Amino acid sequence: MSASPQNVVPPAPRVPFRGVRANVFHGKSMSSVAEFPASPTGEIVVPKVALDEISLSYRTTKGERLLALDKISLEVKPGEFLCIVGPSGCGKSTLLHLIAGLNPQTSGKVLVDGTPVSGPGTDRILIFQELGLFPWLTVAGNVEFGMKMKGVPKAERAEKVEHYLRLVHLSKFKNSYIHQLSGGMRQRVALARALATGPDVLLMDEPFAALDAQTRDLLHDELERIWAETGCTIIFVTHNVREAARLADRVVLLTFRPGRVKEEFKVNLPRPRHMEHPDVSRMARNILDCLREEINKSLEVEYADEKAR
Amino acid sequence: MKKLAKQIIFYSVLIGVWALLAKLRIWPPYLFPPPWGVGRALIDGFADHSFWIGIAVTMKRMLIGYSLSIVLGMILGLGVSSNKFLEETVGGLLVSLQSLPSICWIPLAVLWFGLTEKAILFVVLMGSLLSVTIAMEDGRKQMPKIYGMAGKNLGAKGFKLFWYVLLPASLPFIVNGMKQGWAFAWRSLIQAEMIFLSLGLGQLLMMGRDLSDMSQVLAVMILIIILGFMVDGVVFRTMERRLQDKYGLTPA
Q1: How far apart are CA B164 and CA B154, in angstroms?
Q2: Which residue of A125, A146, A179 is in closest CB contact with B248?
Q3: Do A146 and A122 touch, CB atoms closer than 8 A?
Q4: Neighbours of A231 (CB within 10 A)
Q5: What 8-state DSSP symbol labels residue B102?
Q6: pTM beyond cutoff 0.90
Q7: Distance between CA atoms of A251 and A287, rounded to whole angstroms?
Q8: pLDDT tens for residues B150-168?
Q9: Residue B69 is inside which H or E element, if any?
Q10: Dihedral of CA B20/B23/B25/B30: which sign?
Q11: For residues A202 and A233, what is the distance between their CA atoms, to the nearest angstrom?
Q12: Which positions in chain A touch B145 (Cβ < 8 Å)?
């Protein structure tokens, strides 16, 4: 959150950026990451997360079989910031739950580092839309929760809690309870809790949807900074195209029911970015044009449901 | 403070009317004793230790019976809520059993255990077990699903998931049932004590009747009200308020 972004001239793409990120990569799996910057074309041998023809169907209350996701294939590079955009009801949240291993798919495979996912794992941490922070624990208690489950010793936990709370600027609120915090602060606690668990992949489900514009802008800056510092891979679901253009390396657009990959956009804009920057706005415009058709489809279905009642 | 003043005035007027009625001698004093007679009975009861013993015996039974029902109720509630088959079969049975006043267990308890301490504890247990079980089951159901998912996501499984996530997450929903369980246990115990001849407050009450000592009857009734209110209104209310504060739930 260092710059006042209005006055910032977009800096030249920072070449050592990725290398630096690789160095602070939680101190693990260095070998696999080390190949990444070395690769001259930017092509990756093993993607961090790969979805291989993922499908999901479920039965509605009426007993009809509904196809939510239809053969989605997707590869996410290590350290990539991927945004998934789509109209409501396209199954984008469900997709994140699948990657997190909280929900089994009907067919297809989720691979992390080339290994199929069979359940939840702390290498992939999901930040839920509703956050799911534990109200009976303090901020520090929430942040250390993942480490406590892993059996990390108390002293080490305390140290890491300090570190991650400093990272999200919440050191002063260590002993507060969740309901005493504002919406933006809760988001940051959720982020710190996820990061402290030491994930390689951060899954974020419309985390900033309920926040006011100022808070959201601030959190975008922070998220971008933290992503750069930790070097983790982020898969970020949103329905806000400007947010996607602001944050992502690549934006994947899903269709409405069943969810399929409709279009991919590479966002090759220099960072740090700002929402109001013309290039970001233009990118958002492009994505929105493509998305509009799907939104209309989803609205038609909603209206039809309404009439049927 | 205003509330306290109102209450003081209300109770003064109540006792005043009572004293006036007693003074008018509409009914004979052995049927309608004056407030000072009841006060005398209270002082005498505590002076000859019979009330102290009664309270101690009753509270001891309460603690044993209630603790048992909490432990068993939690196990049962968890078992029932974690399995669809049990929920549909045992769960239904538990709900229907709850419509049985716990005093109805007395004949069965007496035949099984005789006129013993065990029989009384059994009745107390049956009085509160069901509501604790149902509260536990409801708590697990009402608890927002997100906590379980978040816990799993952060690496909690099995017992750790239960102890560190599911139990604390359902606590605000359970505490209400525990309170109800206490109230049921309290009623069952006093009822059982009135039928058994075995110390305790219930027996003191019956003794008052046998001796046609209305002052003692009223004194023991007041004692039962005060004790019941203290636990219900003070212990459980504070617990609830603390939980609500911590969980950020505004009291309804």
Answers
A1: 12
A2: A179
A3: yes
A4: 22
A5: G
A6: no
A7: 8
A8: 888 888 888 888 888 888 8
A9: helix B50-82
A10: positive
A11: 6
A12: none
- Strands (E) across chain A are located at 49-59, 65-76, 81-85, 107-112, 115-116, 124-127, 201-205, 233-238, 250-254, 261-266
d(CA A257, CA A288): 18
ipTM: 0.73
Is the CB of residue A118 less than 8 Å away from at least one CB of chain B? no
Give the pLDDT band of residue B68 (cuts 50, 70, 90): very high
The minimum CA-CA distance between A186 and chain B, rounded to whole Å, is 13
C-alpha angle B16/B18/B23, rounded to 5°?
Answer: 95
CB–CB contacts below 8 A, A to B? 57
Torsion (CA) A84, A89, A91, A94 in degrees, nearest 10: 110
Of A54, A56, A52, A106, the residue nearest A75 (C-alpha): A52
Residue B241 touches partner A, C-beta closer than 8 Å: no
Closest CB to A132 among B150, B246, B247: B150
**DSSP SS3 for B33:** coil
Whose structure tokens read 């009822």?
B191
- Report the residue from A136, A149, A180 with minimal CB separation from B154: A149
Q: How many helices (DSSP H) and strands (DSSP E) are in chain B?
A: 12, 0
User: Which residues of chain A neighbour B149 with C-beta distances below 8 Å?
Assistant: 102, 128, 132
A100 vs B contacts (CB less than 8 Å): 153
Q: What is the pLDDT of residues A138-188, one digit of tens each?
A: 899 999 998 888 888 888 888 889 988 988 888 889 888 888 888 888 988
- DSSP annotation of A144: T
| B163 interface with A at CB cutoff 8 Å | no
Quote the percentage of chain B above a pLDDT of 90.
22
Residues of chain A with pLDDT under 50: 1-39
Greater confidence, B34 or A117?
B34
pLDDT (0 to 100) of residue B12:
94
- Calculate ∠ Cα A70-A74-A80, nearest 5°: 145
DSSP letter for A26, please: T
Q: Do A122 and B165 count as a contact with CB atoms less than 8 A apart?
A: no
Query: Per-residue pLDDT tens for B176-212?
Result: 788 888 988 999 999 888 887 678 888 888 888 888 8
